[in-house]
Amino acid sequence: MNKSIPNDAFKPKPTRVESKDENTSRAAKAIINDEAAQRRAKTQRLRQARLAQEAVDIASQPAKATARSRKRSIAAR
């Protein structure tokens, strides 16, 4: 007389509309997450390219001459 009750016997079954909403939400989240991953990868790639270009630019620039301070003559004041 001890019959086993299935675990999902008392869980409400989603309606047809809820099931479609869940599928749509799942698909939208997958698309959004994929686009975000692509955006992060592009940002990382562009950052690496920028840093490499800046390193080349710094290496190719000649050293700047330091400015000498000039003494003012008394007559110039």
How would you characterize the overall build of this protein?
The chain is mostly helical. It has 1 helix and no strands. It has one helix at 16-60. The longest helix has 45 residues, at 16-60. It starts with 15 loop residues before the first helix and ends in a 17-residue tail after the last helix.
Give a quick precis of the structure.
It is built from one helix and no strands. By secondary structure, it is mainly alpha-helical.
What is the topological layout?
Blueprint: H1 16-60
Distance between the termini: 114 Å
The whole-number mean of residue pLDDT values reads 84
Structural class, by secondary structure, is mainly alpha
- SSE order: H
Shape, per Cα inertia axes: rod-shaped
Number of strands: 0
- The amount of helix comes to 55-70%
Largest sheet: none
- How big a fraction of the residues is strand? under 5%
> How big is the Rg?
34 Å
**Helix count, per DSSP?**
1
Q: Which spans of ≥5 residues are poorly predicted at pLDDT below 50?
A: none
Overview features:
rod-shaped
